[in-house]
Amino acid sequence: MKLIGPFKQIVTLADLPLRGKLSDEQLQVITDGGIVVNDGKIQKIGNFEVLKSDHQNIEVETIDGEQIVLPGLVDSHTHICFGGNRANDFAMRNAGKTYLEIAESGGGIWSSVQHTRNASEEELLRTLLERIKFLISLGITTIEIKSGYGLDVENELKMLRIIKKAQGQTKAKLVPTCLSAHLKPRDFDGSNVEYLNYILTEILPKVKEEELAARVDIFIEKSAFQPEESKDFLLKTKDLGFDITVHADQFTPGSSRIAVEVGARSADHLEATIDEDIEFLAQSDTVATALPGASLGLGEKFTPARKLLDAGAIVAIASDWNPGSAPMGNLITQASILATFEKLTTAEVLAGMTFRAAYALGLEDIGKLENGKKADFVTFKTDNFQNVLYNQGSLKADRVYIDGNKAE
Predict the structure, then answer these.
(1) Are residues 164 and 106 in the same domain?
(2) CB of 216 within 8 A of CB of 244?
(3) What's the chain look like in SS3?
(4) Which of 49, 101, 128, 258 measures 20 to 30 Å from 242, CA to CA?
(5) Are residue 288 and residue 345 in the same domain, yes or no?
(6) Count of other CB atoms within 10 angstroms of residue 220
(7) In this structure, are 155 and 299 located in the same domain?
């Protein structure tokens, strides 16, 4: 057992509701506080001197200078296991080339598939661990990671096995998701439906057997999989015992409704979501996940987060870090920019990167600083927690704790 502190401010996010809009006045902020950690869990939070007096023989980890504490951040949507680089895609897109023109010139998702298939397991693991280390340095302690650049049995399993191996080499919690339904690979001789059936019969049984992922994702879009075939696939996936999530409404509306109808954990992207589907999402338990990094990378409009929150939806914010449309990977920077354009309160942004994102992953023991929760938290050298978003990512995390211990 140990006491960590004192902290100028501890922003607990305790007692905040799961859904809907939030005001900054709802934030619980403990000043001159400390955190008692025992066996990887938070045992008590309160005034540092009082806690020190109440626990006479406790180990004390003293924090020098003024620092604030937030719950460990949760990035609930990433594609950080990949080979290669698509800087040329970005340059071509900014020069006015269309998605189709970029794909026809050798870019796009298929480029990442080829690079990932050709990369050795050692290279993929090394670069994945480098990206995980970077995310931890930002204060992110829980990271969802998708497959989806393999698109056949051998390479999808290769990706998921590497993610599993990475879990043994990092303190961060990794949440693997099988995204074999990213798009139909060019070398698959058959229709979309036949490829989805191939995933159901050839890939997912092996994923389940090896316990490589408990979640399945699909990209519903004109350029990927169509609504009805996707809905059938998702229902069959649920029957196999997987949680499901959906890439929804990125360029065209309608697929977020499917996500709700099949009981998906989350519908991610939503840049093209229309008002009637906002209401549909708001009345469900499906998390609406905004991915501002994709908007910035593609020059597209942002997820209508303000409308979603006002309607009562559960809104999370994730980075979508991937080699094509969202190469930045800095969640705090992206969320700060989203807040500016969508007029989100600090409380709404912090909730979206913590307990609301955790809910999208089915995790209940993270995202808030409360007694009994996992002792994952991040500190910043500042006297005011508002400076974290105000500085739009330039104020770096100072200390990152996972299970109550500093992450190196």
Answers:
(1) yes
(2) yes
(3) CEEEEEEEEEECCCCCCCCCCCCHHHCCEEEEEEEEEECCEEEEEEEHHHHHHHCCCCEEEECCCCCEEEECEEECCCCCCCCCCCHHHHHHHHCCCCHHHHHHCCCCHHHHHHHHHHCCHHHHHHHHHHHHHHHHHCCEEEEEEECCCCCCHHHHHHHHHHHHHHHCCCCCEEEEEEEEECCCCCCCCCCHHHHHHHHHHHHHHHHHHCCCCCEEEEEECCCCECHHHHHHHHHHHHHCCCEEEEEECCCCCCHHHHHHHCCCCEEEECCCCCHHHHHHHHCCCCEEEECHHHHHHHCCCCCCHHHHHHHCCCEEECCCCCCCCCCCCCHHHHHHHHHHHHCCCHHHHHHHCCHHHHHHCCCCCCCCCCCCCECCEEEECCCCCCHHHHCCCCCCEEEEEECCEECC
(4) 128
(5) yes
(6) 27
(7) yes
Q: What is the pLDDT of residues 165-218, one digit of tens each?
A: 999 999 999 999 999 999 999 999 999 999 999 999 999 999 999 999 999 999
State both tokens at 172: 């961060």
Report how far apart the first and last C-alpha atoms of the chain are (Å, whole number).
20
The residue count of the chain comes to: 408
Task: Report pTM.
Answer: 0.97
Using alpha carbons only, what angle is made at residue 10 by residues 6 and 12, rounded to the nearest 5 degrees?
Answer: 145
pLDDT in tens, 339-380: 999 999 999 999 999 999 999 999 999 999 999 999 999 999
Can you read off the two tokens belonging to residue 312?
């009562």
Beta bridge partners of 62: 5
Residue 1 neighbours by CB distance under 10 Å: 13
Q: Which domain holds residue 31?
A: 2-71+368-406
Q: How far apart are alpha carbons 313 and 17 in whole angstroms?
A: 11
Same domain as 150, residue 197: yes
Q: Which two structure tokens, joined as six digits, stand for 202?
A: 């050839």
214 and 286 inside one domain: yes
Residue 304 token pair: 């209508």
- Tell me: do 52 and 174 sit in the same domain: no
